[in-house]
Design brief:
Layout lengths: L1 H55 L6 H17 L6 H9 L33 H36 L15 H4 L16 H43 L2
Helix pairs in contact: 1-2, 4-6
Length: 243
């Protein structure tokens, strides 16, 4: 009985030593395997990015360029979650791959309708406080529309500067934004800082900004419509020329 007990203790000791060695080894191997997988995914993403950049450029008659495009197609074909069709492969090689030319990521508030300009109530039928509130609301609307117009123009200029060189007959819009839509916004006269404003003063100030305010509002609305039409054009073209 004593001998069996000694044998059991030895086996337990051996098992304990083996587990103390095996567990760290297994953890190390598992960690290495996970790290290797992450590293491989990172490399694959880099390959996909390089391949996408190659296919964005218009094809040329250079043999090296053609080989690069074939390599890029093979990379995307290998790592794409959905296999490419034969039609899409041909378009990729011919430079008809639709790298979406939408203006995406336009902040939502940039595409909201311009803030309305409120009518000035008859001074004889309203209070001074109400008149001042209407003036303040209109000034805020004017400033908001002007800022949105400026921001939307800057966004469109930056986008076209970056992406227009990739446009082909498949994704090119009829023209760049019309010049009248890209003209600088009308400047609004600044309200002088003072403790008290008379009704007459506010009337004169509002009269000075009402025209540029309405012009900016109209220009903003037209530019938003242009962007919507341009987006629709590219979506329609993508469907028409897609795989």
């Amino acid at each position: 009985m004593s001998q069996q007990s000694d044998t059991l203790e030895k086996l337990q000791a051996i098992a304990s030593i083996a587990s103390s060695i095996a567990v760290p080894v297994i953890i190390a191997i598992l960690g290495w395997w996970l790290q290797a997988g992450i590293s491989k995914q990172g490399i694959e993403k880099d390959y996909v990015q390089i391949a996408s950049n190659i296919l964005k450029e218009p094809p040329s008659s250079d043999e090296d360029n053609e080989e690069l495009r074939i390599w890029a197609i093979a990379v995307l074909d290998k790592y794409a979650p959905i296999p490419f069709s034969a039609s899409l492969r041909r378009k990729l090689q011919d430079g008809k791959f639709l790298m979406s030319e939408t203006i995406g990521n336009v902040p939502y508030n940039f595409m909201e309708p311009p803030k309305p300009v409120l009518s000035i109530p008859d001074a004889k039928k309203t209070s001074s406080d109400n008149l001042r509130k209407v003036y303040a609301d209109n000034i805020l609307a004017c400033q908001t529309n002007t800022l949105t117009l400026n921001s939307l123009q800057e966004l469109l200029i930056a986008f076209d500067k970056t992406h227009l060189k990739y446009a082909t007959e498949y994704i090119k819009y009829d023209s760049l934004p019309p010049d009248e839509l890209m003209k600088p916004a009308q400047k609004l006269a600044e309200l002088p800082k003072q403790e008290y404003y008379t009704i007459q003063f506010l009337k004169e100030y509002y009269a000075a900004i009402i025209l540029p305010c309405k012009m900016n509002s109209t220009q903003l609305e037209l530019l938003q419509n242009y962007i919507k039409q341009r987006e629709k054009y590219h979506k329609d073209e993508s469907k028409k020329n897609g795989p």
